[in-house]
Amino acid sequence: xxxxxxxxxxLGRGPRGRVSATCGTKRPAPAAPPPPTxxxxxxxxxxxxxxxLRVPAGWKVAVVAPHxxxxxxxxxxxxxxxxxxxxxxxxxLSSGAHGVEDAxxxxxxxxxxxxxxxxxxxxxxxxxxxxxxxxxxxxxxEGADGELLESALSLNRLRAHLEELQPHLLFLPHDNDTxxxxxxxxxxxxxxxxxxARPVALLWNEDPKTVALRRDALMPFGEAEAQWxxxxxxxxxxxxxxxxxxRGRGFDERILEANRRSLKAxxxxxxxxxxxxxxxxxxxVRAVAPAPVSRPPPAAAxxxxxxxxxxxxxxSP
Length: 317
Ligand SMILES: [Zn+2]
What we know:
By secondary structure, the chain is of the alpha/beta class. The protein has eight helices and eight strands; from the N terminus they run H-E-E-H-E-H-E-H-E-H-E-E-H-H-H-E. It has a single domain, classed as Rossmann fold (3-Layer(aba) Sandwich), CATH 3.40.50.10320. Helices cover about 30% and strands about 15% of the residues.
């Protein structure tokens, strides 16, 4: 006798031929909940703790970084996602050369400064554990101010990259910001995702230069993660040096101080959260409207008196 038939008798077969563990019952197994989508994942609770979010492993996250250090500013959130098997991809838009002081390199040429910033970002990603093939430097055009320049060519290059990646979640600095690079990157991303026919969630992160944002979601963290993040941020040695000289404190201290303020701003709403810092985000979920249903042509109107409502419509001449 075939093995399969013995097993079928012992377990029984439910409706549609499905094997049921309870012999003799015909109750169908409860339907599994549908898998989340970027439109359903976040629910309606605000502020939302990102650490409690069940982002499916294998989902793709795009980090759109106007500068080579914006990734690190939300390093704790990205580390949590990366550890859970989410595919994190970094796309750095500009060289960030203008952020390197002349005294930091010799000769103080833009191309050397750009090279320094690229190496700093690569080193921080290596420390983070991000595979090199998930990091791309687009080197989009820069204006006279050294910041990203909005142009059709830049828009098309970023669009091509994001459309190839097809991310479920997209992280980028909030564009309500005094930094022109953040504003221009935000404008380009908005223009791109507005044309998408699939859902995507945008998480606009708070930065020390953000003017204002709605704190919809947060990733709280404590001292151990802060020390790890400090090490990550210090790979950007050119920014550490510039901040120390111009602001009297390091790049890492500046970011962590902003994270401390962000948590403080939410503390009253989350009294049970035991943390010292938080990376905070404004959430925009783009749930795409269902495609229009193509309607069949109207059935032939039933017979009735002339000009009855059922026959209203164009008349034959
Ligand atoms: Zn930036």
